[in-house]
Amino acid sequence: MSIPEYVQNKTRLAALDDFAVLDTPPEQGFDDIVSLACLICETPVALVSLVSGTRQWFKAKVGFEPCETDLDSSVCAYALVESDLLVIPDLTQDPRTHKNPLVTGSPHIRFYAGAPLRDEAGNALGSLCVIDNKPRPEGLNEQQAEGLRNLARQVMTQLELKRAINARNEAITRQNDLDIQKRLTENQYRTLFDAIEDGFCIVEMKFDGELAVDYRFIEINPAFADQTGLVDAHGKWMRDLAPNHEEHWFEIYGRVALTGETARFEHFANELEQRWFDVQAFRVGDPSELRVGILFTDNSERKAVAQLKANADEAQKVLNHELSHRMKNTFAMIQAIAAQTLRPIPDREPVDAFMQRLHALSTAHDVLLQQNWAEAKIGDVVSAVLGALVDPSRFRLDGPSVDLGARATLSISLLLHELATNALKYGALSVAEGSVCVRWGVERQEDGADELVLSWDEENGPPAVEPTSKGFGSKLIKMGLVGTGQVRLSYAPSGFSAEFKAPLVQVQAA
Fold first, then answer.
1. Which of 38-47, 52-61, 171-180 has the weakest average pLDDT?
2. What's the whole-number mean pLDDT along residues 330-349?
3. Rounded CA separation 495/464 (Å)
């Protein structure tokens, strides 16, 4: 499909030119945003992409080598006409992108999600996008989508602030002979300056030699007082407003003023009502003026919520451990009661089978206990259950690390116990030279869903014979993994074999 006509819209292109950002050097603020986008959306690639009339150019990038591409290789061009996010789960299946050179050739991108970058007038300048080299049928979850939108707004805030500060600095430079132009620019700057919801100020640093000892507020925006609690701070020194203000604030701002390097960080300010701030600081004006622009947000509430969550998680962890410990003791008590109660029964085979199944459940419980009953590794479950019954050297185990939910851990433990018990009685483990190969893996289905596949193959044992009676063990085996019933059983002269399948999402469910 052809590139949308809107790409060549004159108003849009003029708005992009007005920001004067194309072909400018990398900046830490934008680099931080694409790094955060990768973390939030769990992708290897993120870009701040600006689409001109002839190319798309990347102001910031992670995991992608080129600095720009032609429009034929642009997916972001399609994001310009979207009212919200553009999400393409599989680029090879979308008519707009299946012939894109970056899809058909290196680097073979497969998944795309982009948030349009719109200025205040609604002109789409480009997009903040994330890219993966494998399809993602599920796209983005709600938190990832909202995070991408928020970061796109931060990109525009930085672009607009950068434009406003550049315009203001140019106006100051020309102030002697361009007073009228300066006032116009100042009004535009002030409109944006006052509209910023985050706190913003410009400070003038004071040094004692090379040591930053104080700073004075040259300009502050209306949100400044709400974010800091400092009232009537304009023109005043920070040491007068907050005598015990932490030294790290002076050190960081002093370094920015001297080196010109932008600083992005999070820090506490106990003197300002014990607040936490997310801050971006950058030098403004002539270096000799020692002035620093500071854009900041009060994150105290978010930090408090995070601490409450951490405390709750720790309390839950302690509770889970105590419950698991008591369940383990309960298992031991049940086994002891069952042994005493069933001792008079002369037919010991069903009694032994019952006790062994209890032991298998207890073994699965021990594996889950190590992970606070949250999940278990399938390899740990297989090794623990089989090792409790037979010499581990009789088994060959092969498969990747796969997490199992608590329900699947218990189900697979009982299934493996029945398979091993049958092999000991009738199959490969009933003879000295016999062995069993247990394999597992994850397979992608045609609909894009993943399945866990577990196989059991007995070798060098007697010929397998299908049982004529169907007891509890046979029913348990035919139920398969977590009761899905996707089971294939083979009773061959070479030995018994079985294959079990279940949707990975069910296997990993809590």
1. 171-180
2. 59
3. 5
Residue 286 is which amino acid? D
Q: Is 23 left (phi over 0), alpha (psi -120 to 50) or beta?
A: left
* Run of H or E including 505: helix 504-507
Separation between Cα atoms, residue 405 and residue 374, nearest integer Å: 7
- Kindly compute the dihedral angle of the four CA atoms of residues 494, 495, 501, 506, in this order, to the nearest 10 degrees: -160
Element (H, E) at 55: strand 55-62
The one-letter code for the residue type at 63 is G
> Residue 322 CA to chain centroid, in angstroms?
30
State the DSSP H helix or E strand holding residue 366, giving kind and residue range, or none if neither.
helix 348-369
User: Helix 378-387 to helix 406-425 angle, to the nearest 10 degrees?
Assistant: 40
Task: Give the confidence band of 164 by pLDDT, cuts at 50, 70, 90.
Answer: confident
Model confidence over 408-435: pLDDT tens digits? 777 787 788 888 888 888 899 999 899 9
- Count of CA atoms in the C-beta half-sphere (13 A) of 449: 11
CA angle 480, 484, 489 (to 5 degrees): 35
* pLDDT one-digit tens code per residue, 373-392: 456 788 888 887 787 778 88
Region 174-186: mean pLDDT is: 58
Distance between CA atoms of residues 106 and 52, nearest Å: 23
Q: For residue 3, which of 78, 53, 57 has the smallest C-alpha distance?
A: 78
Read off the pLDDT of each residue in 431-444 and give the average, rounded to a whole number. 92
CA distance 499 to 438: 10
CB atoms within 10 A of CB 93: 11
What value does the mean pLDDT take over residues 466-474?
74
- 322, 327, 332, 335: CA torsion to nearest 10: 170
CB atoms near residue 314 (< 10 Å): 10
Q: What average pLDDT does the segment 15-29 reach?
A: 93
Q: How many residues does the chain have?
A: 510
- Helical H segments across 129-274, by residue range: 142-173, 179-195, 223-228, 238-241, 247-259
